[in-house]
Design goal:
The protein is mostly beta strands. Helix content is 10%, strand content 62%.
Length: 77
């Protein structure tokens, strides 16, 4: 599903760090080594259909690499 973040991501929380991430080997192989963290937060997103709504998003992040593999986990009311 294609989407675009509109505005700021709020209520950011760390879910997992380093070896606690299931996909840590894939992330390091694909994007390089780093202190990888899995995070979640809420943001306003614009979907491919043009609809705008609030959603919980999850992503991986490492210093010097940035946000990778961002996905919508659920829509909020």
């Amino acid at each position: 599903m294609y989407f675009e973040i509109v505005g700021e991501i709020e209520q950011i929380e760390t879910i997992a760090v380093g070896g606690r991430i299931r996909d840590i080997m894939r992330l390091q192989r694909q994007y390089g080594p780093g202190r990888w963290r899995k995070l979640k937060g809420t943001a306003t997103v614009r979907l491919a259909t043009g609809r705008t709504c609030k959603a919980e998003v999850h992503w991986y992040e490492a210093h010097g690499v940035g946000k990778k593999k961002m996905k919508i986990k659920r829509f909020l009311s």
